[in-house]
């Protein structure tokens, strides 16, 4: 596959040995109950279909809290592209703050590069693996629908009352041009782009929470079903790496702060393997 060939070539140089270390020790602590729980970072590995060389570290690490939120679209991009990566989950304790460029997540590591900001991470992945658009005009359109996906997600509370909710008119305003642009498979051109992955993440969440929310948008409904049936997407949606939505993410209630990020249905595999911090965070200790 093209993306695997690109990865082999562009990531031939492995991470410095001191950059990230992983431990296989399963945690004996009680299960974390939310992202405020005092719990060390943990890791799950997406193993490539083609094997890494013996002793070679996974070339990409993505760090975020153990929720979807801003970490889900970068994860989904890597999954769709079948890129091997380590998905690191943080809880309470602020372990990432000493090394995060802006003191926040998500964080994306690739060799010596460390990126923050979800949009910057997504655009980098899209550019690196050739799904950002083929020319300046298509790149601009891809970016336009990438931004539209954010707008759709911002009005997700309206999915429970598509007529009477205060945000319903605005949500329809976003969905109407999306419906017109989508052919049931793609938003820009005739091959996968960042626009498709971003729109899927937004629209699939709508259908997940309110199955009839796209009934009036047949092209978008077909797009969600077709995209979800891609083998690598279906595998991810059924995997332990796919995190449950927390109350703050459903749009059913007002945001309730840290307590709204409760994790009652978290898969035990998510917190079974501890992840050791980058040496730079511990000053080389």
Question: What key phrases describe this protein's structure?
Answer:
single chain; 285 residues; alpha+beta; Glutaredoxin; Glutathione S-transferase Yfyf (Class Pi), Chain A, domain 2; 2 domains; five-stranded mixed β-sheet; 12% strand; disordered N terminus
Could you walk me through the main structural features you see in this protein, from its secondary elements to its overall organization?
- This protein is an alpha+beta fold and 285 residues long.
- The protein has 2 domains: 2-129 and 244-280, Glutaredoxin; 136-229, Glutathione S-transferase Yfyf (Class Pi), Chain A, domain 2.
- The chain is 35% helix and 12% strand.
- The chain has helices spanning 2-10, 72-80, 118-128, 136-154, 168-181, 194-209, 218-228, 231-237, 247-250; strands at 22-26, 42-46, 60-65, 85-90, 107-110, 113-116, 273-275.
- It has a 5-stranded mixed sheet, covered by helices on one side. Strands 1-7 form a two-stranded antiparallel ribbon.
- Strand 5 and strand 6 (113-116) form a beta hairpin.
- Helix 2 crosses helix 6 (194-209).
- The longest helix has 19 residues, at 136-154.
- It is globular, with a radius of gyration of 19 Å.
